[in-house]
Amino acid sequence: MQYIESITEAIGNTPLLKLNRVAREVEANVFVKLEYLNPSGSYKDRMALAMIEAAENGDTWNNRKLEPGGTVFEASAGNTAPAVAMVSASKGYKATLFLYRYSLKGGNDARAKITAAYGPTVCISSEPEKYISNGQVLDYYYRLDKDMPHIVAAKKDCDLAEEENEGSVWLDQIYNKYNYIGQTSIGREIYAQLSGHVDAVGCSVSSGASLYGMCLGLKENGVRPEIVFGVVPEGSEEYISLDKPESDKGEYEIKTVDRELANKMGLKKWTQMDSIVEKLVADGYPDKFFLVTDEEARNMADRLCREEGIYCGMSSGANVAVAIKIAERLGKGKNVVTLIVDRRDRYLSEFPNDKYVV
């Protein structure tokens, strides 16, 4: 008999697919890692499992330990919430997920429904005014980044919830090293699947953990691809400041608005530690950043569905759109790898105006 004892054993070891139609006009090989085949439907399963297992052992920034019957707290715009809810359910923990208030506007509730199916408490994050009462100050930060006040407010919700619940843990995907450690397996799998012949690798960047994890997994096997690329939604550059469609090293910088807001909202952790994206850049990645529009991401996602049979979302479309650009430059015999990060079902409430978010 062959079976598994827990759904978490089905996480990882996803197939690597060569694109034959959408990449037919380029000479290099374009491969996609089918992360949407993870149990909750996205690559986030890997890091959710790694962060929760680390918390079980008390391997957290403040040495808090996730105890039996404890609650897992996290804030999310999308894929992290169902992943954390799924892993928590499989392990018998309670979970409370704070969904970013801005991400639920316009009827964007498909991801909330998917998350709720696993049985956690699903909350809408607090208004930023709860933590910054000075309207002029808040307006200033809204002008700098319309979404970041909501993001930091959601993190503060998690921070307070952790303080108030003994034996419970806030995972904090933006600063938790087990986010990228959990995703090093992607790099190791890619190495094995291509026998080490990896010329370019990249994906969408928010926390930076997926890209960093892939690169570290390849590095463990002595591989540093010729090109490592990051992909960011145009007009929604949360942690990286970009001012043109393509930027090389030295032409992009890490944004500080999140740290400034954390200081004003009393989120001390975010003012005292390096974020994952800071570690990513300090370690020399990526070589290039690309801005991708909603339309470009949507068009490629549609093509992947219709021409390759891959039922994927906008981030995956953006990843492949950039991977094809890289493939055009590298030429025949080179291997370019990116991620199909999630399933399209979580964007159905946005259809037909699906947005590229990370």
Would you mind describing this structure in some detail?
- The structure is a single chain.
- The chain is of the alpha/beta class.
- The protein has 2 domains: 7-39 and 178-350, Rossmann fold (3-Layer(aba) Sandwich); 44-176, Rossmann fold.
- The chain is built from 13 helices and 13 strands.
- The protein has a 7-stranded mixed β-sheet with strand order 1-2-13-7-8-12-10, with helices on both faces. The protein has a 4-stranded parallel β-sheet with strand order 5-4-3-6, sandwiched between helices. It has a two-stranded antiparallel ribbon with strand order 9-11.
- Strand 7, helix 8 (209-219) and strand 8 form a beta-alpha-beta unit.
- Helix 1 (44-56) packs across helix 2 and helix 5 (148-164) packs across helix 9.
- The protein is globular, with a radius of gyration of 19 Å.
- The chain starts with 15 loop residues before the first strand and ends in an 18-residue tail after the last strand.
- The mean pLDDT is 94.
CATH architectural category of the largest domain: 3-Layer(aba) Sandwich
Provide mean pLDDT, rounded.
94
Tell me the series of helices and strands, N- to C-terminal.
Answer: EEHEHEHEHHEHHEHEEEEHHHEHHE
Shape: globular
Fraction in beta strands:
15-25%
Please estimate the helix content: 25-40%
Q: Please summarize the sheet with the most strands.
A: 7 strands, mixed
CATH topology of the largest domain, which one?
Rossmann fold
Which spans have pLDDT < 50 for at least 5 consecutive residues?
none
Secondary-structure content class = alpha/beta
Count of individual beta strands: 13
Number of domains: 2
- Rg: 19 Å
Using the coordinates above, name the CATH class of the largest domain. Answer: Alpha Beta
